UniProtKB/TrEMBL annotation:
This is Diaminopimelate decarboxylase. Keywords: Amino-acid biosynthesis, Decarboxylase, Lyase, Lysine biosynthesis, Pyridoxal phosphate. It comes from Streptomyces natalensis ATCC 27448. PROSITE patterns: ODR_DC_2_1, ODR_DC_2_2. Residues 1-23 are annotated as: Disordered. The gene is lysA.
Length: 463
């Protein structure tokens, strides 16, 4: 719809930065299914529902801000990934995107594996009953305690990230009388098209061992000599929020090239490769993510083709999606507190959360969408900036968004696609209390991570 469809024209639209939204969406009341979780609808009264539950009732019961996670959607995405990759591959959910005991149980029930990257994530996984052999441990600086606990638990694999770690893990395993299954994480030298802080396969960064100049081949040589290690394969993760499959294809090709070199030098075929996570999701209607079956097809074909060309058996493949599973399944519900119109500029709509529950806008310039969800409105669209309540001007939740111009204190706004890296990166800045995560399914809602309380904050303060 062109702007002229709104006779008065959208308020403040002339100050939109280049490259951002072209203009207001056709209808501010319509929810784009691409960016909202599967059971989100607007009911006949104009109120948004999730899993059949009205957001006004949810706000009443659980308070705001709060994350509402659509359990059916989460499980459906787990199944879509598992089915797409089939029985010759393993799907490891990346727990850093969001982890809780309930999530671990769902993953377990859906037959997924789990990637953890800290002692805390490992503890959560084990506590909630994930079989140790289905867990992988990551990290560029795992502590001796973390490695020991993982080896003792009988973890399925540890992904080695440095020369020191090869020796460290081998020693710990030997001391415990075990042989630990490991992969070596390599950096393949791909520049992923994403934010610098979340790109991980170019050479000048902290993760992995470079393929360049034979570093990775040397790591393989050393790992193969150590009795405490069973080297099962090579790992590569090129970054996050990536839409273009080309980077994954280059990565797959280079990893297979290393397998070929290992076969030629040592006479062994490493049985597994892991191509990491990083698949992008839709945060706004402009994003066009790939479906799991397209990703599985593209990766499967390239690995098979490269292996055939090299005369290698096709290794077992694994992938580690985090965001692509949990990201689209949740939205954050906020209540509007104040509305401040800056004449000729934009309108600042302040909500009761902010950078403590979603740091991604401030940290990566991430784009989000937002909708008025407690009612519909026919008011003209107004260029808005949704901001939080923190003492910092960079405390922005949604930088540029159109909201109806009658948005007012007491209205509920929802920001979709906040399932990944929002609660897991939440902070207590300004002594904010981190919001709860409420799982919604078939007309029932239950808290899976409760809201923090002032007692929680004060309990840590022992002075
Ligand atoms: N595997 C490894 C080894 C990783 O380092 C990561 C993410 C993943 C898998 C999962 O990536 P995903 O599929 O979720 O993109 N905090 C940033 C993202 C950092 C991701 C770190 N590693 C964000 O909010 O965008």
């Amino acid at each position: 719809m062109s702007r002229s469809a709104h006779p008065a024209g959208p308020r403040h639209a002339d100050v939109l930065p280049e490259g951002h939204y072209a203009g207001p969406p056709a209808d501010l009341n319509t929810l784009d299914p691409q960016i909202w979780s599967r059971t989100v609808r607007r009911n006949a009264d104009g109120v948004v529902t999730v899993g059949g539950l009205d957001v006004r009732a949810l706000a009443e019961e659980f308070g705001t801000p709060a994350y509402f996670l659509d359990e059916d959607d989460f499980r459906a995405r787990c199944r879509a990934w598992k089915d797409a990759f089939g029985s010759d591959a393993d799907v490891f959910y990346a727990g850093k995107a969001f982890l809780s005991r309930a999530i671990v149980r769902w993953l377990n029930e859906e037959g997924l594996h789990l990637d953890v990257c800290s002692g805390g994530e490992l503890a959560t996984a084990l506590d909630a009953g994930m079989p140790a052999e289905r867990i992988a441990l990551h990290g560029n600086n795992k502590s001796v305690e973390e490695i020991t606990r993982a080896v003792e638990a009988g973890i399925g694999r540890i992904v080695l990230d440095s020369f020191q770690e090869i020796v460290r893990v081998a020693h710990i395993a030997e001391k415990l009388g075990k042989r630990q299954r490991v992969q070596i994480r390599v950096t393949v030298g791909v520049e992923a098209h994403t934010h610098e802080f979340i790109a991980t396969a170019h050479e000048d960064q902290k993760f992995g061992i470079a393929l360049a100049e034979g570093q990775a081949a040397e790591a393989v040589r050393r790992a193969l000599k150590l009795d405490g290690l069973e080297l099962i394969g090579i790992h590569s993760h090129i970054g996050s929020q990536i839409f273009d499959m080309a980077g994954f294809e280059v990565s797959a090709r280079r990893v297979v090239q290393l397998l070929t070199e290992v076969r030629d030098e040592h006479g062994i075929e490493l049985p597994e490769i892991d191509l990491g996570g990083g698949l992008g999701i839709a945060y706004t209607s402009a994003d066009d993510p790939r479906e799991p079956h397209e990703i599985a097809k593209a990766l499967g074909e390239i690995v098979t083709k490269e292996c055939e060309a090299a005369g290698l058996g096709v290794p077992r493949l694994s992938v580690e999606p985090g965001r692509a599973i949990v990201g689209p399944t949740a939205f954050t519900l906020y209540e509007v507190g104040t509305v401040k119109e800056l004449e000729g500029l934009r309108t600042y709509v302040s909500v009761d959360g902010g950078m403590s529950d979603n740091i991604r806008t401030a940290l990566y310039d991430a784009e989000y969408s937002v909708a008025l969800v407690s009612r519909t409105s026919d008011a003209e669209p107004m260029l808005s900036r949704v901001v939080g309540k923190h003492c910092e001007s960079g405390d922005i939740v949604v930088r540029d968004a159109f909201l109806p111009s009658d948005v007012a204190p007491g209205d509920l706004l929802a920001v979709p696609a906040t399932g990944a890296y929002c609660r897991s990166m939440a902070s207590n800045y300004n002594h904010a209390l981190r919001p709860p995560v409420v799982a919604v399914r078939d007309g029932a809602a239950r808290v899976i991570v409760r809201r923090e309380t002032e007692e929680d904050l004060l309990r840590l303060d022992v002075g």
